[in-house]
Amino acid sequence: MSTLEIKDLQASVLLDDENSKQILKGVNITINSGEVHAIMGPNGSGKSTLASTIAGHPKFRVDSGSVTLDGENVLDMSVDERARAGLFLAMQYPVEIPGVTTSNFLRSAKTAVDGEAPSLRTWTKDVKAVAEQLKMDPAMIQRNVNEGFSGGEKKRMEIMQLELLKPKMALLDETDSGLDVDALRVVSEGVNRAKESNDMGVMLITHYNRILRYIKPDYVHVFNDGRIVEQGGPELAVKLEEEGYDKYVAAAAGR
Amino acid sequence: MTDVTNANDTVISDILEKNPELEGIGNYEYGWADPDVAGASARRGLNEDVVRDISAKKNEPEWMLNMRLKALKFFDRKPMPTWGADLSDIDFDNIKYFVRASEKQAQSWEDLPGDIRDTYEKLGIPEAERSRLVAGVAAQYESEVVYHQIREDLEEQGVIFMDTDTALREHPEFFEEYFGTVIPVGDNKFGALNTAVWSGGSFVYVPKGVHVEIPLQAYFRINTENMGQFERTLIIADEDSYVHYIEGCTAPIYKTDSLHSAVVEIVVKKNARVRYTTIQNWSNNVYNLVTKRAIAHEGATMEWIDGNIGSKVTQKYPAVYMTGEHAKGETLSIAFAGEGQHQDTGSKMVHIAPNTSSSIVSKSVARNGGRSAYRGLVQVREGAKNAKSNVVCDALLVDTVSRSDTYPYVDIREDDVSMGHEATVSRVSEEQLFYLMQRGIAEEEAMAMIVRGFVEPIARELPMEYALELNRLIELQMEGSVG
Amino acid sequence: MSNTATNTAPGTTTAEEDLVEGVRTDEARIAIPGMTQEGEKLATEHSTATDEREVEVALPKGAKKPAGNSRAERTASYDLADFPELTGREEDFRFTPLKRLKGLHSDELTAEAPAVTVSGSDLVRVETVGRDDARVGSAGIPEDRLSANAWAHFREATVITVPREAEIADTVLVEIKGSHTDPAAQHLIVDAQAFSKARIVLHHSGTAVVSQNIEFLVGDSANLTVVTLQEWQDQGTAHASAQHGKLGRDARFKHVSVNLGGDTVRVTPAVRYTGPGAEVEMYGLTFVDDDQHLESRLFVDHSQPNCVSRVTYKSALQGRGAHGVWVGDVLIRPEAEGTDTYELNRNLILNDGPRMDSIPNLEIETGLIAGAGHASTTGQLDSEHLYYLMSRGIPEVEARRLVVRGFLFEILQQIEDEGIEARLRDVVEAELSNADH
Description:
The complex is a heterotrimer of chains A (255), B (483) and C (437).
Chain A: E1 3-14, E2 20-32, E3 36-40, H1 47-55, E4 60-69, E5 72-73, H2 79-85, E6 87-90, E7 97-101, H3 102-114, H4 120-133, E8 144-145, H5 151-165, E9 169-173, H6 181-198, E10 201-206, E11 219-224, E12 227-232, H7 234-243, H8 246-254
Parallel strand pairs in A: 3-10, 3-11, 6-9, 9-10
Antiparallel strand pairs in A: 1-2, 1-4, 4-5, 7-8, 11-12
Helix pairs in contact in A: 5-6
Chain B: H1 7-18, H2 37-41, H3 48-57, H4 62-77, H5 114-123, H6 125-130, E1 136-141, E2 144-150, H7 152-156, E3 160-163, H8 164-170, H9 172-178, H10 189-197, E4 202-206, E5 216-221, E6 228-229, E7 232-237, E8 242-250, E9 258-260, E10 263-268, E11 273-280, E12 286-296, E13 301-308, E14 313-316, E15 319-322, E16 328-337, E17 342-351, E18 357-366, E19 371-380, E20 387-397, E21 403-412, E22 417-427, H11 430-438, H12 443-459, H13 464-478
Parallel strand pairs in B: 1-5, 4-7, 5-8, 6-9, 7-10, 8-11, 9-12, 10-12, 11-13, 12-14, 12-15, 13-16, 14-17, 15-17, 16-18, 17-19, 18-20, 19-21, 20-22
Antiparallel strand pairs in B: 1-2, 3-4
Chain C: E1 19-20, E2 23-24, H1 41-48, E3 115-119, E4 125-130, H2 145-153, E5 156-162, E6 172-192, E7 197-218, E8 223-231, E9 238-247, E10 252-261, E11 264-273, E12 279-288, E13 293-302, E14 308-317, E15 323-332, E16 340-349, E17 355-364, E18 371-380, H3 383-391, H4 396-412, H5 418-436
Parallel strand pairs in C: 5-6, 6-7, 7-8, 7-9, 8-10, 9-11, 10-12, 11-13, 12-14, 13-15, 14-16, 15-17, 16-18
Antiparallel strand pairs in C: 1-2, 3-6, 4-5
């Protein structure tokens, strides 16, 4: 049983050497193993910043508040330490790494996260099984990391890593974006499998409720202007789909 | 899917794992200096007397002295090139043009003076010879080749591999015919300088139809401060032959600069193939200004593999003049420019005969304020119908303070040609590092992974031990590159 | 090897002869044609090379290109008056034969536009709307006089809508058929809403003198493929088509332009991004015959982070007076960090006579990009390929066709509609057999 606890988190984006702009204005959220929390909000509300800040992206600076994983202070850790502690960020725009094969990358990451190299025989089998379930072309493993991958292939690759690295907490940043229905289904099944097999907690960030038809949220948080403005169950997502975010945006503007 | 893991990309990390002694050496690990007895007494500066003195010490024929003196005139007359790196700090009056480190060339490592032997042991050269990774070795220390060996079976087939001074004495006919024909006396300022004061270097002759399957290796070492090393290499590959020649270079770290200005001439005869690999790792106080050129006759293939890792300034553009039909020229070039380094490298391909083809692939990495430049020329002369050429140059910038430039010159005087040119510049981004680190990989390893990936297309063309060497150098280069 | 010490080439014995101990040290010593004792002539050319031949690609953060020829500064306006009368000397018209445009740039475009019929799927909505509809002009602004002239004169627009989350497997076919040669203006809009997926083929045929503006709205996460086929009758047709794509966040847009028929055809596709993460692929296949002028000028305007663009255009040219033009402008604005772009143009000259102008332009205003590159090649058939095939017994005519097919069909495969691909393959085959006699 793991708990990711975010308390009064305030953070800014670093624009250049001198200037920054506050994005997160006091976020509180607690995620336990096995729970799915959907964070929904309009574009530019800061929900992706929340995920990147928790993972330690250098573009963001924490101004106050705390993030702990099972009581350990996440904010004191470097990016790779956070990953090794069990935090996984499925990125919105995974980057290409030319010349580095996916298979080499996956094995390096697995070795780093586990602290020892995986046994070659079982590892090969695991990679193969996950690739098949995600309906990925096996040849992709021999290609360079994300190089020449389509948007959908990149998202599958993120979920493949999620399944192989077995983190305690997954932060899924707009994983549904750019996916057609078939790909969305495959990717969602992958997330659900990872959640079931190691009782993973999930923070699912999305603009549209489409993905929530495939990954059922336990909690829905509406995010606007750097904070959570409303919370509820799955029914809140349906309401948002019908009514949109206008009411929250207007309320924030009037504040 | 039967094989999800790629065997190749494990090899290098596995070997490093098994050889921990390869790790953790200082940033430039070849920077030690031996006691400098010979160098201390050597004379500085250049004039006609110096040239005559070098020639006399070598007991050369008069025509060679004549050519040296002619070259000296060219050198004096030609202006310093200003189109590339800043060369204004080179003080020609302070350079020692000839340093004799050992009275006699050794046939076994044991016969060498202790200091010099130790140096080569540290560089791993005798070990490579013992483990038969090379078919012949020439080791140049200061101005002369101090050790030389070639496998007997090659000698029996008529392959000649010896230092250039000895070759001039023992096989003058080759020199009378070829010396200075590929790179003329006054070709450029530094080529002229080399011709005036050359000493040492390798001479290789491969007879018709002979394939030298294992590489010949030369190793160049400068020990004296303010030394000028001017080796001269001449390679003749006769019809249908093949040879792979590898050279490596290192020097100690001094406060003031040394100069390395070599000339390499290669004649690749009909249907022969020559591959010339350089891994240059001079210390950061060496000006490396080298002229390398090959003539490829009908159906011949010349391949330059040019790795530039060290030096303060390198200006080097290995060239292939394709004078026979269906001749081929290829260059794979890789350069690392770190702090205070300027790597101005590339290649020249000159199509003179019809149906000739050339290809240049260049990769450069600049970090920590270093400058890398690709400077290349593709020329298709009138009459070189159906010439084909393809140029790809990629640059990787590791940070925002480094710089990369591309100067691709193209000069086509024939209609019926096919030309391709591609250039890309990319940067190791915060996003790439973040991505790898978010998967648990530590920062320095992540950086090294990215750089290794970038040079991978060239690394795979190198012999295994050189690919390993390159990878190790990348790791060393990346140490301390992240804060 | 020869052991003659003098190395005298026949006929080179001159007064300058310079022998020392019987060894030549004069000019005749040099083994490379064109080289002198003074060195290669190239070396001096190098040192005096002017800066304009040098491509500097250092990318300091926040670097700005000097003002002047930047694509970012080109006039964009709905008002025809903002575009001066053309002289043919303008940068973007210097290859276009103005006389052959039959007034598209200068006349009132009042004739009836080619007829539009839409078929293939019930899921799309087709409307005809007036100039005041909110969607008109929402994806693009005219950037040259031809487009502005069409804007000034069109009366109504056809709007094709792919509704939100609708995924349409069948190809939507839009027939655009011309029946006369009086100058006309035309306006079309394709609105692909969020999460929708569709393939739309615009098939231009018949005879026309027409200037078009076509707008493509590609919503968030929508996936739109557009194939624009220019298969006009060769005689009499002049066609200018300004095609404007506007992409939402994470949208995917594939644009395939196939230019086969028409006397003078100028297609100018432009793509703009309004959100991060969008991907554009642009493909072109142009087959230029005797006296045809087929021109493609495209523009990718990277103004958003993390977007991708890939451009692959190929042409084959044959016959006297065949003129192909390809200009590819890619602009990476300072805010477009993480951009990944590559442009490729390959042209095959099949016989003597054609002219091809190929100009890739890449402007980079930020150093923080994932990658940027371009390549352009123009040449004749690869004789090695031909030789190989012929050595296997394939006659030359057939070998040529095989090689050309391989070259061109790669683009047709991007249409991903087997029926249309098969038909176009036949058209290309027919063009090829024209060249053989």
